Amino acid sequence: xxxxxxxxxxxxxxxxxxxxxxxxxxxxxxxxxxxxxxxxxxxxxxxxxxxxxxxxxxxxxxxxxxxxxxxxxxxxxxxxxxxxxxxxxxxxxxxxxxxxxxxxxxxxxxxxxxxxxxxxxxxxxxxxxxxxxxxxxxxxxxxxxxxxxxxxxxxxxxxxxxxxxxxxxxxxxxxxxxxxxxxxxxxxxxxxxxxxxxxxxxxxxxxxxxxxxxxxxxxxxxxxxxxxxxxxxxxxxxxxxxxxxxxxxxx
Length: 251
Description:
alpha/beta, 2 domains, 4-stranded parallel beta sheet, 3-stranded parallel beta sheet, 11 strands, globular
């Protein structure tokens, strides 16, 4: 699948062609950047070639990102509803059970429960997972993202984590959500407090990270999307770290 989103091609077909069983999900396609017509057309090809293996992730993004591209960030909830309405009328469409929403607040969570297969939130804590499950109910998919640093030294681990955390503290949708979870100005300033960093990013040995993943599952997650962070992340895929984690998670 290749979805042109204002000059960017989001290409997932190579991942589908290179595997035989896994589900490949987009995370996250902004509803401000690609029209429902373009999205439905982009999904049709891989769905025909790999039925049931592509999951479309949709989100409302953030004001700075939308406005940087010349858009106006107005009424994001309404924008998502309109996008889903239009998507439902495409032929072929992307049915509700083949799409998920990037939801943080209660209204978008409720929408994910009724208009999609569920949701997978980004830059959240275990407490948010528990809250999301209460809103979603027992049926819909809940698949939170969890940032991970495989480093035992606290100073070095937090330094790596902060290079990830700092960029998201400039986005109000994330900081507003964190405030509802009990974080205040002292936590959200600069690159974030130790308390915030430790809540958003799991660090330590593989067994410690596996325990955090388990906490998400205990809080109601069906699946946890692990994002390994390292000093090399920008230059190369951290394959060795993922393999090390796989051994701790699956034995």
